[in-house]
Design goal:
about 150 residues; mainly alpha; two-stranded antiparallel ribbon; 2 strands; about 60% helix
């Protein structure tokens, strides 16, 4: 993960190999385990950044209709603190994720940060797989990472 700056807002990006890893993990039937292994390799700051990245990139082609699937895959109830807050950010096509999620994550205790990560991994994986299948059905995709399998 490359950190460009932290103030006034954190700015980071995944490198090419990390982007490929995220997309391949999303298509794995045991994706939660794979994402949890990846998270365990990271320091806390990078864990939070990966959580943020997964949510942000999971928003493409997302209208919230798969939220129950996301909660089920993350093993969280709709009433959990983490799920309730993140669901509240869905207004205006999830724009709140860009400004409200990353500053909120450090305020959570370790167990809630793990809940947020599981939710992020499920959110990304379910939406990425849907996007990947949609692109395949229509003869291809302009996302370079979809060409790598």
């Amino acid at each position: 993960m490359e950190w460009l700056h932290e103030e006034p807002y954190p700015c980071f990006r995944l490198d090419r190999d990390e982007t490929i890893r995220a997309n391949l993990l999303a298509r794995d039937a045991t994706f939660i385990d794979g994402f949890l292994e990846w998270r365990a390799e990271l320091v806390l700051r990078d864990q939070l950044a990966l959580t943020d990245w997964l949510f942000r990139f999971g928003t493409e082609y997302n209208d919230g209709s798969r939220w129950a699937d996301v909660l089920g895959a993350a093993a969280l109830g709709a009433g959990s603190e983490v799920a309730t807050y993140i669901w509240s950010l869905r207004n205006d096509k999830w724009c709140g994720l860009g400004t409200k999620l990353f500053p909120w994550l450090p305020s959570l205790n370790a167990a809630r940060q793990l809940d947020a990560f599981r939710l992020a991994a499920a959110f990304f994986a379910i939406n990425e797989c849907e996007r990947y299948e949609l692109c395949r059905a229509h003869g291809g995709c302009s996302h370079w990472w979809h060409a790598i399998s």
